[in-house]
UniProtKB/TrEMBL annotation:
Organism: Bosea vaviloviae
InterPro entries listed in its UniProt record: Bact_solute-bd_prot1 (IPR050490), SBP (IPR006059)
Chief place where the protein resides: periplasm
Domain of life according to the entry: Bacteria
Pfam family, any one: SBP_bac_8
Cellular component aspect of the GO annotation: periplasmic space
Signal peptide residue numbers: 1-26
Protein name: ABC transporter substrate-binding protein
Family: Belongs to the bacterial solute-binding protein 1 family.
């Protein structure tokens, strides 16, 4: 289990210096588990919040930072054992555990903290935190909307130009867009003798990237999986037909030889790696972490000056972040957003102080530096956060695009309406359906029938 543990203390030192007894020195403690940040700025901002909270309250924060997968795995084990921390924030809670835990009564109701903040929190960011508790038979706020992510497309502008095209040549319509990259850009690069694929298309069953990307295609075709009450409606004729078209469209990228054959086995980092190695010209991703890596590199003292200069050129000149093309019907594609949730556990030993810690963290002066420390990888959930010059000053080409995209509005992923979809996502029925088509050569209609049957079995 990879982790970084920080026992951050405050008033205890002063108490010892004053000559208090051992019993008097014993300090109130809360236990907090977070996903370790991709960038130093994220962790620095969190440590600053911890330090400020300790000084304000005299409460010691026992903070542990875990890798993305370890964070949720350790949390699940602790909840099952009845020994969770007081506060947990793992960046995959939202689509794997938050709804399930709320339903089972494993989370503390934090409505009293959320209610005063509601005017500043974006309405769509609240959807994934208003959850059903099967014990109370009521919905309440059981999570804090800390930050969110949205789907983007990232491409190499210099590779596009090498293929003989300008950015203005890129079509805005759905089919024309993918035809352009697969038939024109890839052909142009292959004509130069380069074994390059136009699209890095996540298809691995074990990758969360795959279901984020696939559900974006399903969104483009208007396939509704559940309604806002969590009822499965994918078996309705119009939705089923739309899902069949989404599976066809998603599978077609590989069928036409436009993505590396290995993409059927890709894990989450693999499209990033292929992009950085320039073996693909573009990819789609649920954050702007691909571009942000070059922002991080250009300020990394461990790299040579030449490497930092190249990273700067890549970030500002060679790499572009953009949004998906318009839907097949010609209308703009609504932006799907996934809200990253922090929770206070009902079995936490000091959950009262845990709620206080999260109330403290959700203050704008604390939350904003934490979100911005991710260099644009995560987006704010608050109106005040989005109004920050970090997003609005237009100086950063990638954040400027994200701000424009975000300002157009977002909609939640449908899994927030039915907590059982945490199991559907974990099994990745979406990727399995696509792989039934591309690897097992079954008809898309059969693959979708199997998808619907499995979804009903898990979440019906």
């Amino acid at each position: 289990m990879k982790s970084v543990r920080c026992l951050v203390t405050g008033a205890a030192f002063a108490a010892i210096a004053a000559g208090w007894s051992g019993a008097a020195v014993a300090q109130e403690t809360i236990t907090v588990w977070f996903t370790k940040g991709f960038y130093k700025g994220e962790d620095d901002a969190l440590l600053a919040v911890v330090d400020k909270f300790q000084k304000a309250t005299g409460v010691k924060v026992d903070l542990s930072l875990y890798s993305t997968e370890d964070c949720v795995t350790k949390s699940v084990g602790a909840v099952e054992a009845g020994t969770p921390p007081d506060v947990g924030f793992c960046t995959t809670y939202d689509f794997r555990t938050t709804g399930k835990w709320a339903f089972e009564g494993k989370l503390e109701d934090v409505s009293d903290v959320i209610e005063p903040l509601k005017t500043d929190i974006m309405p769509d960011a609240l959807v994934g935190t208003l959850l059903m508790n099967d014990k109370t038979k009521k919905k309440a706020y059981y999570a804090f909307p800390v930050q969110q992510q949205m789907m983007h497309i990232t491409y190499w502008k210099d590779m596009l130009e090498e293929a003989g095209f300008k950015e203005s040549d890129i079509p805005k319509g759905w089919n024309g867009y993918w035809d352009f990259w697969c038939d024109k850009v890839q052909a142009g690069l292959r004509a130069k003798g380069k074994r390059i694929y136009a699209v890095g298309h996540p298809m691995g069953v074990a990758a969360s990237d795959t279901f984020y990307s696939f559900l974006t295609f399903a969104n483009a075709y208007g396939a509704q999986v559940v309604d806002e009450n969590g009822k499965i409606i994918l078996d309705q004729p119009a939705n089923k037909a739309a899902m069949i078209e989404a599976v066809k469209s998603y599978a077609n990228i590989l069928q036409r030889g436009c993505t590396p054959p290995s993409s059927v086995n890709w894990l989450d980092p693999d499209n990033n790696v292929a992009f950085h190695n320039k073996t693909i010209a573009m990819t789609h991703n649920a954050t702007i972490s691909i571009a942000s890596k070059h922002l991080d590199d250009m300020n990394n003292p461990a790299l040579t000056q030449e490497q930092r200069d190249q990273a700067k050129k890549n970030y500002f000149d060679n790499i572009r972040t953009t949004q998906f093309p318009d839907k097949p019907d010609g209308k703009p594609l609504p932006n799907l957003a996934a809200v990253k949730t922090a929770v206070v556990f009902a079995d936490g030993k000091n959950k009262k102080r845990g709620k206080e810690f999260m109330a403290f963290m959700m203050k704008d002066e604390n939350l904003r530096p934490f979100v911005e420390g991710s260099l644009g990888r995560w987006l704010p959930t608050t109106k005040s956060g989005l109004a920050s010059p970090f997003w609005t000053d237009g100086k950063d080409p990638h954040r400027a695009l994200v701000y424009k995209q975000f300002s157009a509005g977002t909609i939640p992923f449908q899994f927030v309406y039915n907590y059982k979809f945490t199991a559907v996502n974990a099994e990745n029925v979406w990727a399995k359906a696509v792989n039934r088509v591309v690897q097992d050569k079954v008809a898309p209609e059969l693959a979708v029938d199997e998808m619907i049957a499995r979804i009903k079995q898990i979440a019906g």
